[in-house]
Automatic annotation (TrEMBL):
This is Uncharacterized protein.
Length: 86
């Protein structure tokens, strides 16, 4: 079942939160790059458009789609005061 894209991104972000435990073990993780295939659909809802997405659940269901959509982003630690708008 497809979900709103922001829900998928938030879940992916939450999945890397346990990497903070690595800091306690002396390892520093400064960034995580994500590159995943996505099933996507644009739907009309509430007078606007909503982008629904999720990771593919079954390749057989999407075999007609030779090149799946991809979600690519980087989660990076940025020192306070160095982000946008600072």
């Amino acid at each position: 079942m497809l979900r709103e894209l922001h829900e998928v991104v938030a879940e992916l972000q939450d999945s890397v939160a346990p990497l903070a435990a690595a800091a306690r073990a002396g390892m520093r993780v400064s960034a995580v790059e994500v590159d995943l295939p996505l099933d996507m659909a644009l739907v009309l809802r509430g007078g606007g458009c909503t982008l629904l997405a999720d990771v593919p659940r079954n390749l057989a269901d999407a075999s007609w789609n030779e090149e799946p959509n991809r979600l690519q982003f980087t989660l990076a630690a940025t020192p306070a005061g160095q982000g946008e708008g600072a």
